[in-house]
Each structure stands twice: as structure tokens, then as C-alpha cells.
Amino acid sequence: MSGPLRLSGTPASGGYAEGPIFCLDGGAASYVPKGSAAAEAQTLKAAIEAASEQLAVLAAASTGEAADMLEFQSAMLADDSLSRLAFDAINAGRTADKAWADALAGEIAGYEAADDEYFRARAADLKDIRQQVLDALTSTRDRTAPPGAILFGEDIAPTRFLATDWSAGGGIALSKGSPASHVAMLARSRGVPMVVGLGSAAKDVAGLALLDAEHGGIVLRPTERDIEGFRKSSAAYGERRRRAEDGVMRSAATENGISVRVLVNVADPWDVDRIDIASCDGVGLMRTEFLFGKDLPDEETQYRAYRKVLEWADGKPVTIRTIDAGGDKPVPGFTVEEGNPFLGLRGIRLSLSRPEIFRLQIRALLRAAVHGNLKVMFPMISVPEEYTRAVALFAEEAKNLAVAGEPHAMPPLGIMVEVPSVAIAPELFSNAAFFSIGSNDLTQYVMAAARDNTAVAALNSVTNPAVLRLIAAVAEFGRQHDVPVSLCGDAGGDPAAIPHLLRAGLRDLSVAPAQLALAKAAIAGVTA
Amino acid sequence: MSATAAAQVEITHAVGLHARPSVKFTKLAKTFDANVEMALAGDGPWIDAKSIVKVMAAKAPKGTVLHLRATGDDAESAVKALVELVERDFDEATEGEAHVRTA
Q1: Which residue, A119, A115, A82, is CA-closest to A101?
Q2: In this complex, which of A64, A75, A293 lies closest to B23 when CB atoms are compared?
Q3: ipTM over 0.95
Q4: Is B67 marked active-site?
């Protein structure tokens, strides 16, 4: 009866935690009626104020997603229309706690019934606010978990998570909950171990618990052996993470000592604020579509964005891709509506068809080139003429800038290898300063299967022999003709694909910033 | 001397009037003394544009034409400011909203 209890659920945030159980749900004090409508109203008013103050305290210590969520909750709590229903109910004779709970129940039901998933998710915020005021009404908020405790309950409100001090460790174990919830996201970003869906088998739990959020389990009333095994797994996990994190600051090399350069893909200039340049070998792909959202950006706006990234890179190479727009992501005044946008007027084709817009980007790039180590590449190149025309435009604009006395420089001009024609006959493009394999689209076109179509997604694999053969051929061509070859698709950061890519001859990969550590670790495990 | 003002503006923001845009919208509306209301159609129902609860409850998606009206001394500036906020997509595109944590 007092033996160990092992429960399993779904990991929501990785890690290990060993500590005392702290029950989230138990121990809520009951509400003491105040005897008159006026007193109930006064009590509710004070509780709302107390909850608002707590939110403000939390908000002051938060940034990003957490701050947005708290601001939303504060705004809702401060809205009279929410509390008016409750105050009306109090006048009709209900106690403050019931009046408040009922008023919120109506709103919550409205959100849970919404068609839009986003609105349904906001129900959690309203439940959070409801609980905060109820806790203030019953003075339940005095219960704080001891440091290093494993919080156990049905679910946990986001503000509860934010109000908990995680600096001494601890974790979260929920009988319900979801890995896609807002709290799970907060837990991942703070590195707090969390397991959900443990089921209702555990009731009245207390004492020491071992939370394994790597595999998704918890052991209550553990034996000595359980504890020993747990500590080994926990240490191994910590070691792996430390090695990956240390490894990220060093240059990558394979098991047999071959150097591999790992660069990052950035989608917009603000990405670089969160990346340490020392952790990568440069920017292998800077997308420029972010600039072309609602309006066509002027030359100055573009120049400033390119300059920011070049200066951040401090001499390391930054490869900027000219606008890769198409009918699937409409840009008013630029893209055209097409029946089949993926096989239509996109990428370099679109840019060349609108030279007056292309020239603005070209000028911005030429001017930005003096601020760092810039390389420029063209997307969707399919025939050599496209490259020739683009190069000619660069030369013309460089001449115009020279005549105007504006500082500028000509960067190396390369091409994306994504349209199969280029991968099959790379010799036709040997003028290009470098090749960058866009494995996402190359795979898509070669396998004739879309990435986002679940019915055929399995076909869309970079490790398909046909795709790997093309990649190897391009890498070999590059070696023989002195054309640098790199890869900038998602596969570059995929530990399952990396061994194949290295064995195909690639030595330069550009990955999403979040994958840097994993990619370098994967490279270290390959004998190429 | 109570002025009135009215306008319509289309919501072009990708996710429509979600939490963050609603917070900005109502925060801005509250900076004006005028009574400000919004509706999803010309004949209402009109809801208080300063109430985030009411604005969120409208669940207005992208493409909705928002009708605005205000009464009060600064009615015109209120309506103008709100229209401009919606036209700027609630200033989300320029804040580097690509701050998405990749898994």
C-alpha cells in the first residue's frame, strides 16, 4: 500500500526534478459570507484590486510572451463590463465568490465555444483571472510552494507559473494539461521540467517525488533504487545539454576531425539580437521577404536592415537572398495571382519582371556591402540567362552609385540550387560565385511532393537517394571547379539528415538558430 | 459642444482582432475622453470600444470592416487614431513579431 507509485504521461518541457510534492488543488479555503450586499460588493472590489496588483508585480518582472499575456489579463480584469455582471448578481443577493465565478463562467463558455482555436485558447486566461480573484476572496494566495517542489495538480494557471520561484529547481506534474498550452510554452522557455496527462490515478499525494520530464513519468514514494537510477539519468541528461551548449560555442568537426562550417538562417534582422555571433560561422541565408509585407519597402529601409545584420556579424559572411516572393504569399503591387504559384512567376523571375522594384533592393545591397562581409544570392534560378541578367543589373546600379559618389561595393553573387535544372546541369552555372542548395524546395520539386501535404509528406524526404545523388553531384562539381557549395534548407539542422549530407560531400550548413547546438552535436557524431 | 465622428476601416491584420491587437486598440481608445463605439456592421450592434471584454467578444477576423463612431470633444481625433492603428496592422509587423520560439 505504501509502495512506489509510477505514473506516465506526456513530456511538455524536458528535464529532471527531484523534490517534495506540492498540491496545487488542495487546501483552498472556503469563502466566508459577509452578511450584506454592500459588504459583499466591497469585498469583491478589494479582491479584484488585490489580483490586479499582483498581476502588475508579475508584469514588471516579465518580458515577451509572458508580458503580453499578463497585459491581456490585466486589461480584462480592469474592464468594468466583466465585473458589472458580478456586482449585479451581488445586488440580487449572491455572495461575492459565487457572483464572480458565475460572471466569469459565462465569458469562459463564450470563448470555449468559439470557432477560432486562438479564441478557445484564451479561455485559459479567463480561468486564470477567475482563480486569481477567487483566491484573493478566500485569502488562498498565501500558499507558496517550497523551493524545489514539484507542483502537482489537474492543471496550472499561467500566472501561477510566473509567480513561482524556479531558481531552486522544481517541476510541474499535471493529471490533465496539454503540451500545447501557454503554460507548457512558458515552462519550455524557462527550462522547467513539466509532464502532463498523468491521469487521475494519483490522489492525496505527498512526499518525495522523482519527475522525469525527458520520458514523461513521475515516481511517487520512490525506493532507493528508483532514486539511484533517477539521479544517473538526470546527470546524463544534464551532461548532454551542457556538452551541446558548450559545443555550440566551438567550431564543428566530425568524429574524424573534418571541419564543418555551421551558419544560421535568419528571417528578419531582429532574429540576430538573440543570437551570439560566436556560436556560428556567419549567416548562410538572410531572407528578405519580411521587408515586403504590406508595402514595398524603400531603399533606405532595406539598406538599414541589411546594414544591421552585417554589422552584427562583425566580419563573418552574411549571405542575403534577394526577394523570394510568389503568388502564394501576396505582396500588393508586386506578386501576381496565379493558378500554380509554386511553378510560376516567383523568386528571381518575379524580380527580373519588375526591375524598378528589384533595382531598389540591388542599390540597398550594394550600399550595405561596405559595412561587412556581404554575399548575395538569387532564388529560383532555373536558366543561366536569369543569372546573367541579374548580374548586369548589379553592374548598372554599381555604376550609377559610383557616378553619384555613394559608397558601395560589389559582393560575390551566387545562386540557390533548388530548381532541379540547376542541380542536374550545374556546369551551366559555373559563373556563379557560389551555390547554396535550397533543400526544402529541391526535395519538393524532385519528389513532386509538397512538404505541407500530409498525404504525401513522407515522399518529401531529403534522404531519398535521388535527392542525395543530386546534392552529391553538386558538391562534387563545386569541389572540381572551385565553386563554394553550402546548404540552407531545414535538412541542414536535422540530426537524421546531417550524416547523409556530410557523406554527400557538404561542409557548409546553414541552420535555424534554435538548431545550432543540435546540429553541431550531430556533426560531431558522424564519421564522414 | 459635442462633436461626433464616424469611419470604417478594414482589418488587414493576419489574425484579426486577437488579444494583442485588442489590448492596443482598447488602450488607445481609452486615451480619449469621447465615447467610442465599434460595430461589425453599419447598423450595429454597437459595443464599447474601450472595453476589451466587449471588443474580444466580437472576435473580428481579418477582412472584417470595422465601423467606428464617437461622440465628445475629441471624437474626431479618437476615430482618426483608431483607424490609423488598424491600418498599421496594430503596429505588429514593425515590432519584429517574428520573435517566435522555434521548437
Answers
A1: A82
A2: A75
A3: no
A4: no
